[in-house]
Amino acid sequence: MCGAHDNITAAYEGFSAELIAAGLLIPTGAASVYGYNGVFEDVIERFDALVSHAGAALKPEVMRFTPLLTRENYLRTDHLETFPNLMGSVHSFLGTEKELPELIRKRQQREGWADDLGPTAVMLTPAVCYPLYPTATGTLPPQGRLVDLRGFVFRHEPSADPARLQMFRMHEFVRLGTPDQALDHRNYWLKKGEEILQSVGLDVKPVVANDPFFGRGGRVMAATQREQHLKYELIVPVASAEKPTAVASSNYHMDHFGHSFDIKSSDGEVAHSACVGFGLERIALALFKTHGYVPAQWPHSVRQAMSL
Asked: CA 152, 184, 273 angle in degrees (round to 5)?
């Protein structure tokens, strides 16, 4: 087991070194936090255009939010209870001018200056769909709602794996409505997502999955999620063939967010929801790993699909 772990870690470190040498990733000094060059960004934008085009045929609402969520709305979810290790809380200096010199002194003496900070009214968004739900409180139209979302999200999970980032972009399509509407959405996008990714030469495979719930109770929740087939991931080898990476997921939330945010379908029942999410940095990394670091040399079919 130790040998397998060492092999995977070596694969992560080797892939990161290659990406940095190619100029695609720009180290920032923080684990799992990178800058990206123009080539990397161009690949993300071109792939994302494929996703947008596929979703546009369904005529979704388009909404964009900043990667901040009010603390009040964050606490309407159970994220703190289920993923406390991944959360990002925004803190700032809330003291007076009289208290400032002590903060500066601590900073200069390399003491615990952060202990003098206090929580602001916002949290870093852990999922692109979270800011949507507070806006949907009330009764949905008979057809429900379909929303196209894209943005940055934060998860505190520093790693040697270049595909496991602390801040990354997701493009999601979220369905709010009846159980059938939500489940149909999940199933449609599981197939459509596979088609999109295969069109750019990624040999993805769908697998039943679970979220990384925290603690002993989390293990029970994860098992239940898998048993009910609520979450699927599309995986493909990126840094390591031994441990493929999830580059997209399709999830049925049941009435979880409907209860949390008092959202009802037109029949008066608690609304159900489902989403598909494409991890844009992960997909770009998968493309570079699969086809090489020079997009102009990628297979013709891939360049054509992405208008490269």
From this structure: 45
Instruction: Please tell me the distance from the alpha carbon of residue 253 to that of residue 272, in angstroms, as a whole number.
Output: 7
User: Alpha-carbon torsion 159, 161, 162, 164, what sign?
Assistant: negative
Element (H, E) at 172: strand 167-177
Per-residue pLDDT tens over the stretch 115-137: 999 999 999 999 999 999 999 99
Closest CA to 181 of 84, 241, 236, 253: 253
Q: Is the pTM of this model over 0.85?
A: yes
Q: How far is CA 288 from CA 23, 37, 85, 228, in A?
A: 12, 13, 30, 34
Cβ distance 197 to 248 under 8 Å?
yes
The phi and psi torsions of 133 (rounded to 5 degrees) equal -60, -40
d(CA 93, CA 115): 10
d(CA 145, CA 263): 11
Nearest to 234 by CA among 185, 305, 283, 273: 283
Q: How many CA atoms lie within 13 A of 258 on its CB side?
A: 24
Furthest CA-CA distance within the chain: 65
Residues 154, 124: contact at Cβ < 8 Å? Answer: yes
Identity of the residue numbered 80:
L
Instruction: Please tell me the total number of residues recorded for the chain in this structure.
Output: 308
The one-character DSSP state at 273 is: E
Q: How far is CA 7 from CA 18, 241, 242, 282, in A?
A: 16, 10, 9, 20
Q: pLDDT tens digits for 181-211?
A: 999 999 999 999 999 999 999 999 999 998 8
Tokens 């196209």, located at residue: 148
Neighbour tally for 79: CB within 10 Å:
17
